[in-house]
Amino acid sequence: MAESCEGDLFCGVNVADVDNPDEMDALEKKHAVVIDAPDKVKAGEEFEVTLKVGEYKEHPNEIGHFIEWMELYSGETFLARLDLTPEHSHYVMKATVKLDHAHPLRGRAKCNLHGLWENEKEIEVG
């Protein structure tokens, strides 16, 4: 029988409900991955995507607690990665991408103390 991951931030992927920020706790507010991208794009045309961590509450930037990296996917397809260090003053990743198919954009961020966090944004490709 499989064990439950409940309460273990390093077991699986954590998701904060960015559509309801008033209902997030402080941990979720610090780690929520916010995806800023158009709702609709033309197939094969470049557009910019911004991932942010710490949008709702500032995430620490210290040797013992920081965001190690941020990644962007279209569905399961890897698009971009930004490696970070504790010296970064804020956590923002910008990427210029183009899509031929409609898959949700997925942003991921890895906190050295609180595990992997993810968010999705539906995007229409036409």
What would you say this structure looks like, in words?
The chain has one domain (33-125): SOR catalytic domain (Immunoglobulin-like), CATH 2.60.40.730. The protein contains one helix and ten strands, in the order E-H-E-E-E-E-E-E-E-E-E. By secondary structure, the protein is mainly beta. The protein starts with 13 loop residues before the first strand and ends with a strand.
CATH class descriptor: Mainly Beta
- Poorly predicted spans: none
CATH topology name: Immunoglobulin-like
Q: What letter string, H or E per element, gives the SSE order? A: EHEEEEEEEEE
**Shape descriptor:** globular
What is the number of beta strands?
A: 10
Mean pLDDT score, rounded?
92
Report the sheet with the most strands, covering strand number, pairing sense and barrel closure: 5 strands, mixed
Distance between the termini: 45 Å
Q: What's the helical proportion of residues?
A: under 10%
Rg to the nearest angstrom? 15 Å
**Number of separate domains:** 1
- CATH architectural name: Sandwich
Strand order of the largest sheet: 1-9-8-5-6
What structural category characterises the helix and strand content?
A: mainly beta
Number of helices: 1
Q: Which band does the percent of strand residues land in?
A: 35-45%
Within CATH, the superfamily carries the name SOR catalytic domain
